[in-house]
Design a protein that fits this description.
alpha/beta, Rossmann fold, Pantoate--beta-alanine Ligase, Chain: A,domain 2, 2 domains, three-stranded antiparallel beta sheet, 10 helices, 38% helix, globular, binds adenosine monophosphate
């Protein structure tokens, strides 16, 4: 497996693969890989002849007060994990390789980015759409893999690909969790022991939401209220949002009369964690 730092090297390798008639899958990540990322690499390895993993902490998707500097990084670990799951090339550029000093083009999206994480992280999705567009242009994959963990991101990318006629199949992959239910995340490393225990409130409260829905409740206010009550029972937790939205438009709905996404962002101490479920997966 190759680890490359430049766009030219990626292009050269992908050109060779294309000349051999091979298909290419792309797994965009910010590194510090865990089993969640591994499941995306597995899916790409299953569907494609070659798999590229991008490993890039994208400065453009962090707000000025967010955790860009402290975001965990470990390229050696990432290389081992990615290779073990069938990755053929890691693209690990420096920020200057992706954004030259005159960089001035952005991919911006309205509507879908104006809810959920887009409200608390105003520059986030512009950074995500811009970097993912660049990665698509650099790698030109047949398929790209994204986790349902970042459900709004998945909807935004699907919408972008559709709006901008990008000829790439977007594959959404299930959330991988720790054995106690906490969704795996590179940011879980920020949690101390007490916070790690408290963080279970996210998945536990979502389970309450699911069971209410299974019992036939369709009123979103009622479902959200039960979830919030559970989260508020945990002293270390502070709710950013708990909302139920249409899976495609990411606009809030009042009744579960269409496929919906129940999503939350919750601070555990200083760490902001996200989790969700899709009603179609219940
Ligand atoms: P990140 O490195 O956090 O930007 O994530 C890179 C990709 O991995 C995104 O598509 C995420 O949705 C996905 N991902 C992160 N955590 C998980 C998880 N626990 N289960 C499934 N996919 C995940």
């Amino acid at each position: 497996m190759k680890v490359v730092k430049t766009i030219a090297e990626v292009r050269e390798q992908v050109k060779q693969w294309r000349a051999e008639g091979l298909t290419v899958g792309l797994v965009p990540t910010m590194g510090y890989l865990h089993e969640g990322h591994a499941s995306l690499i597995d899916a790409s390895h299953r569907d494609n002849d070659r798999t590229v993993v991008s490993d890039f902490v994208n400065p453009m998707q962090f707000g000025p007060t967010e955790d860009l500097e402290s975001y965990p990084r470990d390229l050696k670990h990432d290389t081992e994990l990615a290779e073990a799951h069938g990755c053929d090339m890691i693209f690990n550029p420096e920020p200057e390789e992706m954004y030259n000093k005159n960089f001035s083009s952005f991919v911006d999206m309205t509507v879908l980015t104006e809810e959920l994480c887009g409200l608390s992280r105003p520059v986030h999705f512009r950074g995500v759409c811009t970097v993912v567009s660049k990665l698509f242009n650099i790698v030109k994959p047949d398929r790209a893999y994204f986790g349902k963990k970042d459900a709004q991101q998945l909807a935004v990318i699907r919408h972008m690909v559709d709006d901008l006629n990008m000829d790439i199949e977007i594959i959404g992959c299930p959330i991988i969790r720790e054995s106690d239910g906490l969704a795996k995340s590179s940011r879980n490393t920020y949690l101390n022991d007490n916070e790690r225990k408290a963080a279970l409130i996210l998945s536990q409260s979502l389970e309450i939401g699911k069971s209410i829905i299974k019992n036939g409740v369709t009123d979103c206010k009622e479902i959200i209220s039960a979830i919030k009550t559970k989260i508020e029972s945990e002293p270390l937790a502070k709710i950013d949002y708990v909302k139920i939205v249409d899976v495609e438009t990411i606009q809030q709905i009042e009744k579960l009369d269409r496929p919906a996404l129940c999503a939350m962002a919750v601070y555990i101490g200083k760490t902001r964690l996200i989790d969700n479920f899709f009603t179609e997966d219940i």
